[in-house]
């Protein structure tokens, strides 16, 4: 057997496809069989799962949490540099499952010289307005079976495949926050901070 | 391929029905006929007789040299979780395991259910379907579904090929496109060709959407089908090798025959 074994990979791919295929599922006490029913049931289940809770959120004010210094808050809000954005892109794995638009980070890295300006503009506008368009904040939900022969939606573990641009923004935020976390997190919880 | 598995047969006797040279005709979406052997199984309730049955099917498989599909009532479970009681008949299941690996069978997973047989409080998964890898490869979309059991202890199982239209298929960037020598130049040309018309901060989304459509076309016209390419390369190598037996090759031909 050589390095390449397309036959083997072909078989494992088809078997995986068969395992992940949902031909029947139980929802609200009824068995859904037709593709349209399954589609509708899935949307139904997950839109109620991901809905905002209607009850009021608890507010915590005046509890004397530690704050970051003014110097650091200015540092946090300093204008973004192209180098930072590039670093964030290069920090992401190129072969991870892509978001709804289908582009991977390998693609971003390869064509970086062509698209970098557009990416930079978009990220910069987020840091200015703190708004993302729906095109970026939408995501695919993929169902991973938790056990063999899953028969209802609770037997699946939903994962969200988010947009690469969303990941860049999240990465940039987390890189920045890393530097100020030590000031706001109490000593008891220092285990959550890298390098502490 | 419907297989009613609930017919009553004498409990003490194993039955095998085999149809060698079964040709799958009348299936419009398969452009050629495919020979396989379908083995319908009704296994006896005693371990000894079942062992004889496994041997008989193994002999059948090697005698006909056709990709087998083995399905029916095996009266045996493979794992403890396939029985509601959780107690596994160790000797029986071990020889069942052995039979499956000897025949190189791969199971069709039952969709959405755990059990196929019910009596009182006990539930088992004793009805199953297996096929060889060749067969699974030929019909990758086949799946095993359970239907209501009616008056019988056994549920009806149906091995079916769902030709379901799940609707619009999203674009996926294939990372191996990046390895194509002209990818970068082609991409740049497509980008500057179509993307100048979208100024603005969120234009990247629109641009990428258009690039997705363009890359789809690029994949068809320039990148091409990898399987066809592979066959082409293999063919040209064979031609050159055959040629080299008759007369010495030129330097350029030698290089290309090494790929």
Please explain how this structure is put together:
The complex is a heterodimer of chains A (196) and B (259). Chain A is mainly alpha-helical. Chain A has two domains: 9-50, no CATH class; 67-196, no CATH class. Chain A is 48% helix and 10% strand. Chain A has a two-stranded antiparallel ribbon. In chain A, a hairpin with a 2-residue loop joins strand 1 (25-27) and strand 2. Chain A is globular and about 60 Å long. With 259 residues, chain B is of the alpha+beta class. Chain B has three domains: 2-160, Endonuclease/exonuclease/phosphatase (Deoxyribonuclease I, Chain A); 175-224, no CATH class; 227-257. Chain B has seven helices and ten strands. In chain B, the strands form three sheets. Chain B has a five-stranded mixed sheet with strand order 2-3-4-8-5. In chain B, strands 1-10-9 form a three-stranded antiparallel sheet, with no helix packed on it. Chain A binds chain B through residues 10-11, 14-15, 17-19, 21-26, 35, 39, 94-95, 98, 100-104, 106-107, 110-111, 114-115, 118-119, 121-122, 124-125, 133, 135-136, 140, 148-151, 165, and chain B through 106, 108-114, 133, 136-137, 140-143, 145-146, 162, 164-167, 170-173, 175, 178, 183-184, 187-188, 191, 201-205, 207-209, 212.
Name the overall outline of chain B.
flat
What does the radius of gyration of chain B come to?
27 Å
| Quaternary | heterodimer
How many distinct beta strands of chain A? 4
CATH fold annotation of the largest domain in chain B: Deoxyribonuclease I, Chain A
Spans of chain A of at least 5 consecutive residues whose pLDDT stays below 50 are none
In the sheet with the most strands of chain A, the strands line up as: 1-2
Instruction: Tell me, briefly, the overall form of chain A.
Output: globular
- Helix-strand pattern of chain B, N to C? EEEHEHEEEEHEEHHHH
Number of domains of chain A: 2
The total count of helices of chain B amounts to: 7
